[in-house]
C-alpha cells in the first residue's frame, strides 16, 4: 500500500489489545476476496485477518486491530515475533550473502547451530545434527536415518499423532480429515499404537501408562515383529492432536520397550521443543533420552529451519550424499536460530515458559472448576490447552463450542487456536516475550467467551 504509513513491528510495538472494526475488518475482507482468486481453497486460515506488524505479545492487522497473540504462528515465534537478536543477526546475514547451498560451499553458522543442538539435546553419547527446511522434512529424515542405521523398514506411531503433510509424514499422522482424505495411497510400513491419553483412557488415568505400554509391546511383538521395526516415533506432548500430555511414566516405558528390542526412539519435538514447555526439550520432563530428536518451528524464530539431532553412530550410518537439500540450513535461517538461542539465554526464557505455564494452569484450573464444559486442562509451560465437552458428564467432545469460543475470542482481540482429533480443544501458545499483563488480559477474554457461550457466570 504505497503512501500508507505502516507500524514498525518488533518489541517497540504498543502492547495493547485493541479492536476497532468487525473481525475480519474491511481491508482484510478485501484481501480475502483477492485471495480467493489467487490461492486454492485448500489453504485455510484460523483467523483470516491480514497482518501488518507483530512483536512482543501482539499481532496488528491491516485494519488497525491489535490482537493478543496466544498462537505464536503455531509455536514458532517462541522468543517473540521479530525478537531483537533474531532480526539483527538475520539482517546482517542478508547483507553478507543469502545462499550458497551447504552442499556446494559450507559456511560456519550451520556448524554453530549444530554445535548448539548437539550440546543441548538430551541424547546419550556423542551427537550429530543435520539441518533441513521444515518439521515434516525433519521427521522424514529421522525415519530415513533410522532405517539406514537399523536395516529395518517399520515405523510405529500413535493415535492422535501429527507429523506433517508430505507423503510419509501424512501417513504417520493419525487424523484423516483434513490431512489425509483423498490423498492416498499412503506410505507403507507405518503401524499405529494407542496413545496414553489420560483424560480419555477407558479404564481411567491411573492405569493409562501401563496399559498403553502393554499395548505397544503387544503390537511390536505379536503383530509387526520387533525386528521389522526401525523406530518408534512419538511427540512428547502431542501438538495438533490436542496437547495430550502422555500419562506420567509412559514415555519412559516406551524408551525401555524400544531399548529391549533394538528399536530406535525418535522424539518429535517440532512443536514442543526449544524452550516452549519450560525445558529446552519436552522429553526432559520425563527424563527420557531418545536416539533421535526432530526440531523445527521455534528453532529459527520464524525463518524456515528444521533439524534432526541424534546419536553419532546412527547419524553417520547414512553415506555421503544421502542427506541434504538445496535450501537446507539456509544461512539466514541459521543466523536467526543463533539469535533464538541468544534470546533464550539472555532473557532466561526457559524459566519464563515455566512462569507462563503456572499462570495459565492456575487460571484455567479455576475456570474448569466453575464451568463443567471445561473437561480437562493440561500442558506444560507455554503449551497449555483446555478440552471442551458436553456438560452431561460423558466427556463427549464439543467441537462446536470450541469453534464458538475461538470465534468470540477473535472478535474480542485474542488469537487462540483449536486442535484435537475431535476439534474440541483450545490451545494456548503465547510467545515467551508476552507481558504478564497481556497474558492475564488474554485469559480474562477467554474466560468471558467461555462464560457467554456456556451461560455460566465465570467472572
Ligand atoms: N511434527 C509435532 O506439530 C507441524 C501444522 C500446521 P512443518 N504442526 C503444525 C498445519 O496445519 O500444517 C508439525 C508438528 C509436529 C511435525 C510437524 C510438521 O512441521 O514445519 O509444518 O512441516
Subunit organisation of the chains: single chain
User: Are there runs of 5+ residues with pLDDT below 50, and where?
Assistant: none
Helix percentage:
25-40%
Bound molecules: ligand PLZ
Order of strands, main sheet, comes to 4-10-9-8-7-5-6
Query: C-alpha Rg, in Å?
Result: 22 Å
Given this structure, which CATH class of the largest domain is correct?
A: Alpha Beta
Question: What can you see in these coordinates?
Answer:
The protein has 459 residues and is of the alpha/beta class. The chain has two domains: 26-79 and 349-454, Aspartate Aminotransferase, domain 1 (Alpha-Beta Complex); 86-346, Aspartate Aminotransferase, domain 2 (3-Layer(aba) Sandwich), CATH 3.40.640.10. It has helices spanning 26-36, 72-75, 84-96, 108-120, 135-150, 167-172, 208-224, 250-259, 312-315, 331-346, 349-370, 399-411, 436-454, and strands spanning 51-55, 58-61, 66-69, 127-132, 154-158, 190-193, 229-234, 264-268, 292-295, 306-311, 374-380, 383-388, 414-415, 417-419, 425-428. α8 links the parallel β7 and β8. α4 packs across α10, α11 (349-370) runs parallel beside α13 (436-454) and α12 (399-411) packs across α13 (436-454). The two termini are 42 Å apart. The relative contact order is 0.16. The model has no long low-confidence stretch (mean pLDDT 96).
Amino acid at each position: 500500500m504505497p503512501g500508507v504509513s505502516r507500524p514498525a513491528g518488533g518489541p517497540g510495538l504498543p502492547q495493547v489489545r485493541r479492536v476497532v472494526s468487525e473481525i475480519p475488518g474491511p481491508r482484510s475482507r478485501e484481501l480475502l476476496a483477492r485471495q480467493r482468486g489467487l490461492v486454492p481453497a485448500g489453504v485455510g486460515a484460523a483467523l483470516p485477518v491480514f497482518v501488518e506488524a507483530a512483536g512482543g505479545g501482539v499481532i496488528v492487522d491491516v485494519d488497525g486491530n491489535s490482537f493478543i497473540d496466544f498462537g505464536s504462528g503455531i509455536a514458532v515465534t517462541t522468543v517473540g515475533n521479530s525478537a531483537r537478536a533474531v532480526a539483527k543477526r538475520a539482517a546482517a546475514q542478508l547483507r553478507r550473502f543469502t545462499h550458497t547451498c551447504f552442499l556446494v560451499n559450507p559456511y560456519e553458522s550451520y556448524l554453530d547451530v549444530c554445535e548448539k543442538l548437539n550440546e543441548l539435546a538430551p541424547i546419550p553419547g556423542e551427537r550429530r545434527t543435520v539441518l533441513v527446511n521444515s518439521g515434516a522434512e525433519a521427521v522424514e529424515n529421522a525415519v530415513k536415518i533410522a532405517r539406514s542405521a537399523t536395516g529395518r523398514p517399520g515405523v510405529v506411531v500413535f493415535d492422535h499423532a501429527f507429523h506433517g503433510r508430505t507423503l510419509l509424514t501424512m501417513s504417520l499422522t493419525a487424523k484423516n480429515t483434513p490431512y489425509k482424505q483423498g490423498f492416498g495411497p499412503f506410505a507403507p510400513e507405518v503401524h499405529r499404537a494407542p496413545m496414553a491419553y489420560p483424560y480419555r483412557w477407558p479404564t481411567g488415568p491411573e492405569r493409562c501408562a501401563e496399559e498403553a505400554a502393554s499395548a505397544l509391546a503387544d503390537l511390536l511383538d505379536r503383530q509387526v515383529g520387533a525386528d521389522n521395526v526401525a523406530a518408534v516415533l512419538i511427540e512428547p506432548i502431542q501438538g495438533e492432536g490436542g496437547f495430550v500430555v502422555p500419562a506420567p511414566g509412559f514415555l519412559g516405558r516406551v524408551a525401555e520397550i524400544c531399548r529391549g528390542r533394538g528399536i530406535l526412539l525418535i522424539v518429535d519435538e517440532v512443536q514442543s521443543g526449544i524452550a516452549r514447555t519450560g525445558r529446552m526439550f519436552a522429553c526432559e520432563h520425563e527424563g527420557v533420552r531418545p536416539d533421535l530428536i526432530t526440531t523445527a518451528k521455534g528453532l529459527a524464530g520464524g525463518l524456515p529451519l528444521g533439524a534432526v539431532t541424534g546419536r553419532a553412530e546412527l547419524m553417520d550410518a547414512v553415506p555421503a550424499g544421502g542427506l541434504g537439500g538445496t535450501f537446507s540450513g539456509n544461512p539466514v535461517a541459521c543466523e536467526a536460530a543463533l539469535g533464538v538461542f541468544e534470546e533464550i539465554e539472555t532473557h532466561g526464557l526457559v524459566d519464563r515458559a515455566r512462569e507462563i505455564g503456572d499462570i495459565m494452569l492456575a487460571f484455567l484450573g479455576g475456570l474448569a472448576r466453575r464451568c463443567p464444559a471445561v473437561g480437562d486442562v493440561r500442558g506444560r509451560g507455554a503449551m497449555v490447552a483446555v478440552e471442551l465437552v458436553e456438560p452431561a458428564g460423558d466427556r463427549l467432545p464439543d467441537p462446536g463450542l470450541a469453534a464458538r469460543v475461538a470465534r468470540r475470542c477473535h472478535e474480542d482481540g485474542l488469537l487462540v487456536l483449536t486442535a484435537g482429533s475431535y476439534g474440541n480443544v483450545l490451545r494456548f501458545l503465547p510467545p515467551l516475550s508476552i507481558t504478564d499483563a497481556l497474558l492475564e488480559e488474554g485469559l480474562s477474554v477467554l474466560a468471558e467467551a467461555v462464560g457467554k457461550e456456556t451461560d455460566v457466570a465465570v467472572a
